[in-house]
């Protein structure tokens, strides 16, 4: 690679041709503040917070390519004043309710203003007015806080290819909103929440349900049961200054008991159940040659994406409910029966790394006998908020274990939290069930990692090969489906997670300022695979409590009873 020699703040450095000044500065440990920039995703150079001095000019370092002999200064009086002026202008048109904002303390604008020592806003004038859009069941939009960085548009359009929001109007009236004046809840939005993760301020956040949970816990007539998804345990600690990539499973369980939940269950149990149901469904479809490829249905963002964009492929989606909905259904039936509790008194709370699960929880078809499978969904961030509100010293909690019988799980279930996990878990079980042989090498490295599309193949004892593909991020999912529809590719099994990296990077996971997103995905996934390796049982069909639930209640996978409780259907939705 051709190199160019530049000087930044007196330090000489040779960087690859094409490197931006911002990247070059980061390479040698010089920090330049940014707001609109999002490496690899959003490069409009619109905010100008990242200006640097090059000769007589002030230029945006995120868009400035390093050129031979360039002499760059990042920390002069002129640079500092320019950055301050830019941030003051942004603040002059920003709703200033920082103390009550959901991003208080985690806001990039707040942090930059503090870093630049801004103690007053010099500019006064008209402020843009907008109604708060509460139409979505998952996401709230408050345009009065929007800084027009465009990150949400880039991630929604370029990464996810959903195009639910875009620019409208011009000049002072410029806004980010859905086309044709629609509200977010009326659009093709999949509720993945990636827009929330990239928003630097509080213009986008999840619909909060914390008060509903406190209310249920304080109601003596309710039996409140909580379940947690696998990715929550590798994200929650970050909210309590525990470094990224650490699992806090035991502390999380202890905190949930302290909050007052009557039982603490693990959604991983239902992930094992999903493998039993979905694996059997796949084998039946292979036998009959029907509705192939089978597409996973664990991710509600992906399911809604298919409903809007590929309604002709709804029969390809697995009919399995997602794991937390299965767990909810089993809590209100099997568990309620076992404990002699009136299911109508049970409130099931799901703690998810995801905001789309809030939408999913309200789907009419996800209920039984008029009772919703899951009553309330909280994100990892909302759980952290409850723990803080309750004054629990999270970091110093003694580890506790999940309750049983719906709290025992395997390594196969844990890896549902990252891209490739569902496929790997399914492959482990399908091989053993069909061959009757013990699978020696169970780590399917080929479906791991953050490559956007990954392919794998296993051979069944009858000689039939099952070809699987794993995609994460809806842009990659679209590529896979388009290849299948055009006949370019032929798969039997498709796993998709809507969020890039899978649930570890879900829209409900903690915000991290000053951390490259890719590092976070990799670190959280590493923690998930470590748990898988450490568990004594790593295949879903070997979970003794799974055997027990089939013996005592469901009969067998895909039985009439399991169809009643654990399977669902989908609806066609408008494309626009
Ligand atoms: Fe460079 Fe916004 S971060 S212009």
UniProtKB/TrEMBL annotation:
<dbReference type="InterPro" id="IPR050340">
    <property type="entry name" value="Cytosolic_Fe-S_CAF"/>
</dbReference>
<keyword id="KW-0479">Metal-binding</keyword>
<keyword id="KW-0004">4Fe-4S</keyword>
<dbReference type="GO" id="GO:0051537">
    <property type="term" value="F:2 iron, 2 sulfur cluster binding"/>
</dbReference>
<dbReference type="InterPro" id="IPR017900">
    <property type="entry name" value="4Fe4S_Fe_S_CS"/>
</dbReference>
<keyword id="KW-0472">Membrane</keyword>
<keyword id="KW-0560">Oxidoreductase</keyword>
<dbReference type="InterPro" id="IPR017896">
    <property type="entry name" value="4Fe4S_Fe-S-bd"/>
</dbReference>
<protein>
    <submittedName>
        <fullName>NADP-reducing hydrogenase subunit HndC</fullName>
        <ecNumber>1.12.1.3</ecNumber>
    </submittedName>
</protein>
<keyword id="KW-0411">Iron-sulfur</keyword>
<feature type="domain" description="2Fe-2S ferredoxin-type">
    <location>
        <begin position="2"/>
        <end position="78"/>
    </location>
</feature>
<dbReference type="InterPro" id="IPR001041">
    <property type="entry name" value="2Fe-2S_ferredoxin-type"/>
</dbReference>
<dbReference type="Pfam" id="PF13510">
    <property type="entry name" value="Fer2_4"/>
</dbReference>
<feature type="domain" description="4Fe-4S ferredoxin-type">
    <location>
        <begin position="137"/>
        <end position="170"/>
    </location>
</feature>
<keyword id="KW-1278">Translocase</keyword>
<dbReference type="InterPro" id="IPR004108">
    <property type="entry name" value="Fe_hydrogenase_lsu_C"/>
</dbReference>
<dbReference type="Pfam" id="PF02906">
    <property type="entry name" value="Fe_hyd_lg_C"/>
</dbReference>
<dbReference type="GO" id="GO:0005506">
    <property type="term" value="F:iron ion binding"/>
</dbReference>
<dbReference type="Pfam" id="PF10588">
    <property type="entry name" value="NADH-G_4Fe-4S_3"/>
</dbReference>
<dbReference type="InterPro" id="IPR019574">
    <property type="entry name" value="NADH_UbQ_OxRdtase_Gsu_4Fe4S-bd"/>
</dbReference>
<dbReference type="Pfam" id="PF12838">
    <property type="entry name" value="Fer4_7"/>
</dbReference>
<feature type="domain" description="4Fe-4S His(Cys)3-ligated-type">
    <location>
        <begin position="78"/>
        <end position="117"/>
    </location>
</feature>
<dbReference type="GO" id="GO:0051539">
    <property type="term" value="F:4 iron, 4 sulfur cluster binding"/>
</dbReference>
<keyword id="KW-0001">2Fe-2S</keyword>
<dbReference type="Pfam" id="PF02256">
    <property type="entry name" value="Fe_hyd_SSU"/>
</dbReference>
<keyword id="KW-0520">NAD</keyword>
<comment type="similarity">
    <text>Belongs to the complex I 75 kDa subunit family.</text>
</comment>
<dbReference type="InterPro" id="IPR009016">
    <property type="entry name" value="Fe_hydrogenase"/>
</dbReference>
<dbReference type="InterPro" id="IPR013352">
    <property type="entry name" value="Fe_hydrogenase_subset"/>
</dbReference>
<dbReference type="GO" id="GO:0008901">
    <property type="term" value="F:ferredoxin hydrogenase activity"/>
</dbReference>
<dbReference type="GO" id="GO:0050583">
    <property type="term" value="F:hydrogen dehydrogenase (NADP+) activity"/>
</dbReference>
<dbReference type="InterPro" id="IPR003149">
    <property type="entry name" value="Fe_hydrogenase_ssu"/>
</dbReference>
<dbReference type="InterPro" id="IPR049830">
    <property type="entry name" value="HndD"/>
</dbReference>
<dbReference type="InterPro" id="IPR036991">
    <property type="entry name" value="Fe_hydrogenase_ssu_sf"/>
</dbReference>
<keyword id="KW-0677">Repeat</keyword>
<feature type="domain" description="4Fe-4S ferredoxin-type">
    <location>
        <begin position="180"/>
        <end position="209"/>
    </location>
</feature>
<keyword id="KW-0408">Iron</keyword>
<dbReference type="GO" id="GO:0016020">
    <property type="term" value="C:membrane"/>
</dbReference>
<dbReference type="InterPro" id="IPR036010">
    <property type="entry name" value="2Fe-2S_ferredoxin-like_sf"/>
</dbReference>
């Amino acid at each position: 690679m051709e190199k160019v020699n530049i000087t930044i703040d007196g330090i000489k450095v040779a960087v690859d041709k094409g490197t931006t000044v911002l990247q070059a500065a980061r390479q040698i440990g010089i920090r330049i503040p940014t707001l609109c920039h999002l490496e690899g995703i959003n490069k409009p150079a619109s905010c100008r917070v990242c200006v640097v001095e090059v000769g007589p000019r002030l230029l945006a370092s995120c868009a400035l390519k390093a050129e031979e002999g360039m002499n760059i200064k990042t920390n002069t009086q002129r640079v500092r004043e320019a950055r301050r002026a830019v941030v003051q202008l942004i603040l002059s048109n920003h709703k200033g309710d920082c103390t009550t904002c959901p991003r208080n303390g985690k806001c990039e604008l707040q942090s930059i203003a503090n870093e630049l020592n801004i103690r007053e806003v010099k500019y006064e004038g008209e402020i843009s007015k907008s109604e708060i859009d509460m139409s979505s069941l998952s996401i709230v939009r408050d345009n009065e806080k929007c800084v027009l960085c465009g990150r949400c548009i880039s991630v929604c359009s370029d990464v996810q290819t959903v195009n639910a929001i875009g620019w409208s109007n011009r000049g002072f009236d410029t806004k980010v909103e859905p086309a044709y004046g629609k509200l977010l809840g009326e659009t093709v939005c999949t509720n993945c929440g990636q827009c929330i993760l990239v928003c630097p301020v509080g213009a986008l956040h999840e619909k909060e349900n914390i008060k509903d949970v406190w209310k249920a816990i304080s109601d003596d007539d309710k039996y409140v049961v909580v379940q947690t998804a696998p990715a929550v345990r590798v994200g929650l600690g970050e909210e309590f200054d525990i470094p990224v990539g650490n699992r806090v499973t035991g502390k999380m369980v202890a905190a949930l008991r302290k909050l007052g939940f009557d039982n603490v269950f693990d959604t991983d149990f239902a992930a094992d159940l999903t493998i039993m149901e979905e694996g059997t469904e796949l084998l039946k479809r292979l036998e009959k040659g029907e509705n192939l490829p089978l597409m996973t249905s664990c991710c509600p963002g992906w399911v809604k994406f298919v409903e809007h964009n590929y309604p002709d492929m709804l029969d390809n989606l697995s009919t399995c409910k997602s794991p937390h909905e299965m767990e909810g259904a089993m809590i209100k039936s099997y568990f309620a029966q076992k404990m002699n509790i009136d299911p109508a008194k049970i409130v099931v709370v799901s703690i998810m790394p995801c905001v789309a699960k809030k939408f999913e929880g309200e789907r009419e078809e996800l209920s039984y006998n008029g009772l919703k499978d899951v009553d309330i969904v909280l994100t990892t961030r909302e759980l952290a908020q409850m723990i803080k509100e309750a004054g629990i010293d999270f970091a110093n909690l003694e580890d506790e274990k999940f309750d049983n019988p719906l709290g025992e799980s395997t390594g196969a279930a844990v890896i549902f939290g990252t891209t490739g996990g569902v496929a790997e878990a399914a492959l482990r079980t399908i091989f053993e069930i069909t061959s009757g042989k013990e699978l020696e090498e169970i780590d399917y490295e080929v479906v791991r990692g953050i490559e956007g599309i990954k392919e794998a193949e296993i051979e069944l004892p009858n000689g039939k090969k099952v070809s699987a593909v794993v995609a994460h991020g809806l842009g990659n999912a679209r590529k896979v489906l388009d290849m299948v529809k055009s006949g370019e590719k032929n798969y039997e099994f498709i796993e998709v997670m809507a969020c890039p990296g899978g649930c570890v990077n879900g829209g409900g996971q903690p915000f991290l300022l000053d951390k490259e997103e890719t590092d976070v995905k990799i670190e959280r996934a590493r923690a998930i695979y470590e748990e898988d390796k450490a568990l004594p049982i790593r295949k879903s069909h070997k979970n003794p409590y799974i055997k027990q639930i089939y013996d005592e209640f469901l009969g067998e996978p895909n039985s009439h009873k399991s169809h009643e409780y654990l399977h669902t259907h989908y609806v066609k939705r408008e494309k626009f």
